[in-house]
Amino acid sequence: MEISFLSGLALWLRGEIYALTGLPILSDLALDIIGIALLLGIISMAAIVFTYGERKVCAFMQVRIGPNRVGGRFGLLQPVADMLKLMSKEDIVPEGADKVLWALSPALLFVPAALVYAFFPFDAGAVLADVNVGVFLLFAISGQAVLPFLMGGYASNNKYSMVGGFRVVSQMISYEAPLLFSLLGILMITGSMRLEDIVEAQSGGLWFIFLQPLAFVIFLISAVAETNRTPFDLVEGESEIIAGPFTEYSGMRWALFFLAEYANLLTAAILATTFFLGGYLGPDFLPGFVWFGIKAVLMVFVIMWFRWTFPRTRVDQILTFGWKAMLPLSILNVFLTGVVMCALGLV
Amino acid sequence: MKRTETYLLNMGPQHPSTHGVLQVKLTLDGERILKAEPVLGYLHRGIEKLMESRTYFQCLPYTDRLDYISSMNNNFGFAMAVEELAGIEVPRRAEFIRVIMAELNRINSHLIGIGTLANDLGASTGMLYCFRDREYILDIFNEVCGARQTFHYIRIGGVAGDFTDKARELTEAFLERVPKFLSEYDQLLTGNEIFTRRIIGISAMTAKEALDLNMTGPNLRATGVARDLRKLDGYSVYGELDFDIPVGEHGDNWDRYQVKMKEMAESAKIIRQCLDKMPEGLIMAKVPKMLKPPKGEVYSRTEGTRGELGFYIVSDGTTKPYRVHIRRPSFVNMQGLDLMCRGMLIGDSVSAYSSIDPIMGEVDC
């Protein structure tokens, strides 16, 4: 296997640490810690950059200027100001709240959101946890995100939160199925659940977005629904149920929800990149992880674009759409893929 | 044993989409609304009572604060009532200026109505587009009276300032923009599948139900009743102008939205004609400094942006009105909220609310 910039760096680092300590377990541990720190850094950085980016993108689409007060004429320090504001806010626990669930909810939401980053191949060989059932594990972990929403909604002792919690469960369960089914076609073609294998299978320049256009559309819609963003932001449908499960949260607890939301946004973009846009593959003049970043940010922009263009769907419409349109279509896609593969004698 | 319970959800008075301080008590079965009960009075300022201790001239600024989105129409209604009571003849030029202002304000108000509907459905971009175009109207108002809200421009006997050449220029430029921005909204909202699905067939209301509740304005016309006081009474110079009354068919949110969209185009048509027909001359009639209308009473009605805006004034022959009652269209239209919300989902309650398009300043008065 060719050695990419990132994995080369990791190999060099491993060698240096081994030479210094002489213990292989120490160098493994050090590299793991560095990797985890890097991923957490990426997530926090993403939240910071995306809050600013989202506000600027939104302003651009709404014929406004956007943040322009803190940090020069482009308001570059706005995320810092936002962060300081959040940290200095009072931590309010509502009366009658279930304190344990209340405190657990934001933490539990953030954990799966951050955990899935371990499986992403940022570059050839640059994966923190290189498992051969990557896809399976990834969705098993991200599926856990339903529960904290419901916990937060239940624990807040607020009817808006409760309604929001109910909505999350129905919405996320309905869209998990088409999301997975839309990827089945790709898994059939590649015959592997390892994310890096899936990326490498697209190395001929024939990205899966061309082979599986229907799956891409289904995947994108389901992924937006999974991240609870407009047009599927029923969970925190601002004009209806205020902020859903987050209504009663303030300060850093709310910030954790927020962080998880942006982590999920980036996850959706990264998954789309990995499965359909060729991941880190690209012309040689730029290193793989740069291509990866460019594609992911482009997908984030597309999802933001959705948010500032579309109205919100209604709770019954979203479920009808999920079960009656998305799921049959994704199964049809699996079927068609199978038929074509049989016809080509690939099975 | 399985058991389900209905529950009560207090929407407002602090809620992102009650546009002010309305409280709606929703009785819910899961997400479905069984009953919606508006609770009013959070913005009550006793304007009717305050007017009893003010002279007629001093009363006028209070009307600005009724429905603060369409202040011009309120000024117009009150000034007309007092003129009828005192028998004041308004100069012809002033009448045309009044109609131009009232129609500009109607477009302004409908822009906000459509914008907030879009915003409540989650399309905040639609709202900001509406607010962008509203700025051009506010520029015109700013030019004629120096204010962007609470204008106090249409006075008893005429208008406060002349319709300058600059104002004419701005108005002409705005009229050219109207079809452009209307087609832009059509692209962003009307043609959007999600948007149409959210409003077609939602909160429908028959003509009989609307008439029984005494609803007026776009809310009534959406049900198919072509009742427009501008045509019916032909007050001011409306009788000489040529315009249509857009009506809906099913009385749902979609029709209310469409009626407002079409009314904006009609208003633009009216303004165009007024600009062409406006004569030179005085803008203010001779009104005594101490206005003492003869004893008697008057009910004068105009087509406000939200329906029939009526002023009932009783005069006891002094400089102050003995009693003023205001028929506020928003208040009357609010009665329809319960009917519109029943059987709908929580998400529809906000769209029903913003398609009625009430302004709390007018509801509570």
How would you explain this protein's 3D organization?
The complex is a heterodimer of chains A (347) and B (365). Chain A is an all-alpha fold and 347 residues long. Chain A is 69% helix and 0% strand. Chain A is globular. By secondary structure, chain B is α+β, with helices and mostly antiparallel strands. Chain B has a single domain (44-364), classed as Cytochrome-c3 Hydrogenase, chain B, CATH 1.10.645. Chain B is built from 15 helices and eight strands. Chain B has helices spanning 47-52, 56-64, 71-86, 92-120, 124-145, 165-190, 193-199, 207-212, 218-221, 229-232, 253-277, 329-333, 336-341, 346-356, 360-364; strands at residues 7-11, 23-29, 32-39, 154-155, 158-159, 296-304, 307-315, 321-327. Chain B is globular. Chains A and B meet through helix 7, helix 11 and helix 14 of A and helix 4, helix 5, helix 7 and helix 14 of B.
Quick structural gist:
The complex is a heterodimer of chains A (347) and B (365). With 347 residues, chain A is mainly α.
CATH class of chain B: Mainly Alpha
Number of helices, counting only DSSP H or I runs of 4 residues or more of chain A = 14
% residues in beta strands of chain B:
5-15%
Which of globular, elongated, flat, extended, rod-shaped describes the shape of chain B?
globular
Low-confidence stretches of chain A: none
Beta-strand percent range of chain A: under 5%
Spatial order of the strands in the main sheet of chain B? Answer: 1-2-3
Radius of gyration of chain B: 21 Å
Q: What is the succession of H and E elements of chain A? A: HHHHHHHHHHHHHH
Q: First CA to last CA of chain A: what distance?
A: 26 Å
CATH superfamily of chain B: Cytochrome-c3 Hydrogenase, chain B
Distance between the termini of chain B: 50 Å
| Helix count, DSSP H or I runs of 4 or more residues of chain B | 15
Largest interface (CB < 8 Å): A-B, 28 and 32 residues
Structural class of chain A: mainly alpha
Helix/strand-derived category of chain B reads alpha+beta
The major sheet of chain B is characterized as: 3 strands, antiparallel
The tally of strands of chain B reads: 8
